[in-house]
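Worked problem 6 (solution included).
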Amino acid sequence: MADESNTGSIAAAVAPNADVKAPAAKKKRSPRRQKAVAEPRRAVSETPAAKPRRYSEQQRKEKLKLIETQVTEGKVTLKDAIKSAGISEQTYYQWKRTVKPVEQKAEKRLPTGEELADLVRLEEENQRLRKLLAEKLRAENADLRKRLGLD
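Solution. The predicted structure is:
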């Protein structure tokens, strides 16, 4: 702590040849820019409001088909085809994802006569093997019960 009873001169505390730095001059700032003049607001009736569009399933399929044909023909890139259809990329990929499972279900083909006969034969063999396995397991269980004296 500082000694309060010390009444020595302040000049004695500071070295006489110490480097004394002059306070640095403050930087001058340029004056602030004036605020931009606000543009007059347009009337609500003048600007057409962007209303959300709802497309039917048929319209979605048509737009997707149009985009695919443009891209496969090599006329334009995928991004350009999507923009020309008037939808966003996100919308395109969402539509593509929802339409694809429906098409995959429709593409499921039925087995032909020869394949059907093979399936029937395999199912019969599967049943026969299951019965054989069940008989073996029953015999093994009976043998273990006799050894353990449970029967």
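Discussion: The mean pLDDT is 80.
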